[in-house]
C-alpha cells in the first residue's frame, strides 16, 4: 500500500502552474465594473487585477505587477474651469503643484479633454513615486465641488 501511495505522489507535480510576474502586468482577462457611490464614480477594470479599497482621499487602487491605477477624489472650491483660458490656468497650476512635489519631473505632454462630459486635463510625465522613477499618466476631472484624479503608472 505504501509503495502505491509513493507512486501516486510521484506523479503529482508534472504539470507546472504559471507563476504571475511581479514585474509585468497581467493581460486583462475580461473586465468588471468597480462602483464607489460615495465618490460618485464607476470604472471598468481588469477582472484579474487586484482591487483594493482605500481611505479618502484615495478611492481605490487596481494593480498587477508593477502597474498601478489609483483613483483619488479631492474636495475643490471655486467654479469648474470651463473654456480654454480657465483650463490653461488650471493646467499651469496643476503642473506647478506636481513640480513642487517632484523637482525631477519631466513633463511629456499636457492636453485638455472631456470625461463623461466634464472638463479634464491629462498629464503625461516621468516622475518619482517613493523615489522610484515612473512613467505616469494622470487625468484630472473637474466637477462641482470635487476633482477626480486617475493616476496610471508602471
Describe this structure in words.
- By secondary structure, the chain is α+β, with helices and mostly antiparallel strands.
- The protein contains 2 helices and 9 strands; from the N terminus they run H-E-E-E-E-E-H-E-E-E-E.
- The protein has a 7-stranded antiparallel sheet, covered by helices on one side. Strands 1-2 form a two-stranded antiparallel ribbon.
- A hairpin with a 2-residue loop joins strand 8 and strand 9 (146-153).
- It is globular, with a radius of gyration of 22 Å.
- It starts with a helix and ends with a strand.
Task: Name a few traits of the molecule.
154 residues, alpha+beta, 9 strands
Could you tell me the radius of gyration in angstroms?
22 Å
Across the major sheet, the strand order is 3-4-5-9-8-7-6
- The proportion of strand residues reads over 45%
| Helix and strand pattern | HEEEEEHEEEE
Shape: globular
The helical percent reads: 10-25%
What is the oligomeric state here? single chain
Low-confidence stretches: 1-11
What is the residue-averaged pLDDT?
86
Largest sheet: 7 strands, antiparallel
Q: Could you say which structural class the secondary elements and strand pairing correspond to? A: alpha+beta
How many individual β-strands? Answer: 9
Helices, by number, come to 2
Alpha-carbon distance between the two ends: 54 Å
